[in-house]
Amino acid sequence: MATRTLMKPANALFSGAHRLSVAPMMDWTDRHCRYFHRLMTRRAMLYTEMVTAPAVIHGPRERLLGYGDAEHPVALQLGGSDPAELRAAVRAALPYGYDEINLNVGCPSDRVQSGCFGAVLMERPALVAECVAAMIEVADVPVTVKCRIGVDDQNPEEVLPDFLHRVSVAGVRHFVIHARKAWLQGLSPKENREIPPLDYDLVRRMKAEFPHLTICINGGITTLDQARALLEAGLDGVMIGRAAYHEPGSVLIGADALWGDGAGRDAFAVVEEMKPYIAAHLAGGGRLHQITRHMLGLFHGRPGARGWRRVLSEGASREGAGLALLDAALAEVAGQAALAGG
Ligand SMILES: Cc1cc2nc3c(=O)[nH]c(=O)nc-3n(C[C@H](O)[C@H](O)[C@H](O)COP(=O)(O)O)c2cc1C
């Protein structure tokens, strides 16, 4: 019989980290991005990109799962639909000390569908229940699920409560619901994040129907004010994806106020704090662009934002690009700020 590993003691600073989280985003929320985001919010839960269970089991594990201590709290998102593989992937991830393990039941991309995982699993709640039960058997942190409200011609009013019931009976206490359907045929992954209409009300009703579950909402949330309003409406957490990535200066700086923490950091100070991290990356043979590509939106909406973005996107992938380029980009913002001020 399987023995349950004891849960790790929770770090007090991480308690309630799901109040705001940055969504898992392939090719975007890598470890450099998370380090950068962490400088703006000490509290929010940061999700990895999705890693498939077979990749964790057979692939370059350190490259796929390695990250820095400074990034906590971090949730690992797994993709898969084979209980034994998912159990093995969770076991392989244990030594890395993630704070949460999340199963992807929301991603509609073709590659994901062909392996029968992601959003297509909304049609197979019994299989999802088996998968999470296998993961929970070996996990020492909460196993959570990110899902949609339904797929294709499913009726969300019926399938979503049934899904939440069946998967929670298998032991999941925490769901992140992307409040729109996914169309498995005919829409690209990008269109699937924009075209199917959002139904926040249904997600709110799920919290009322399952008050014992942690229910976080995702999809189309672009400001902290919107996030605050959804929390006040009774939801347990808000997950933000694209807006956090494209406008971190307005979405993540100041986010810790959602936990009652004081004033947010200054964007210039965040850049200064990135410098030692970037220097270490360059010294290890890495490229500037690998980090600064995540920082292009930092000054979004402020004078000089365009110059900052231009200098970095034109220069950061050039051979030998280093901290001097970052300073040149910063000068674009500082110069404009001085003009605007006087
Ligand atoms: C570039 C990109 C990659 C994404 N990759 C993933 C992924 O790996 N796993 C996942 O569950 N969702 C993924 N998503 C979906 C987001 O997690 C999120 O559900 C979606 O963007 C809606 O939230 P938003 O409106 O706040 O962006 C991705 C989204 C984007 C833009």
UniProtKB/TrEMBL annotation:
Q: Which keywords does this chain's UniProt record carry?
A: Flavoprotein, FMN, NADP, Oxidoreductase, RNA-binding, tRNA processing, tRNA-binding
Query: Could you say which residues bind FMN here?
Result: 24-26, 77, 146, 178, 218-220, 241-242
User: Any idea which residues are catalytic in this one?
Assistant: 107
Q: Give the EC number(s) listed in the UniProt record.
A: 1.3.1.91
Q: Which InterPro entries match?
A: DUS-like_FMN-bd, DUS_fam, DusA, tRNA_hU_synthase_CS
Q: Which residues form the DUS-like FMN-binding domain?
A: 22-330
Site description Interacts with tRNA, residues in chain? 104, 190, 193, 306, 309
- The answer to whether the entry has keyword RNA-binding is yes
Principal EC category? oxidoreductase
Q: Which GO terms describe its molecular function?
A: tRNA-dihydrouridine20 synthase activity
What's its catalytic activity?
Answer: 5,6-dihydrouridine(20) in tRNA + NADP(+) = uridine(20) in tRNA + NADPH + H(+); 5,6-dihydrouridine(20) in tRNA + NAD(+) = uridine(20) in tRNA + NADH + H(+); 5,6-dihydrouridine(20a) in tRNA + NADP(+) = uridine(20a) in tRNA + NADPH + H(+); 5,6-dihydrouridine(20a) in tRNA + NAD(+) = uridine(20a) in tRNA + NADH + H(+)
**Which domain of life does this protein belong to?**
Bacteria
Cofactor(s) required, per the database record? FMN
Query: What is the purpose of this protein?
Result: Catalyzes the synthesis of 5,6-dihydrouridine (D), a modified base found in the D-loop of most tRNAs, via the reduction of the C5-C6 double bond in target uridines. Specifically modifies U20 and U20a in tRNAs.
Family annotation (PANTHER family) = FMN-LINKED OXIDOREDUCTASES SUPERFAMILY PROTEIN
Q: What is this protein called?
A: tRNA-dihydrouridine(20/20a) synthase
Native source organism of the sequence: Paragemmobacter amnigenus
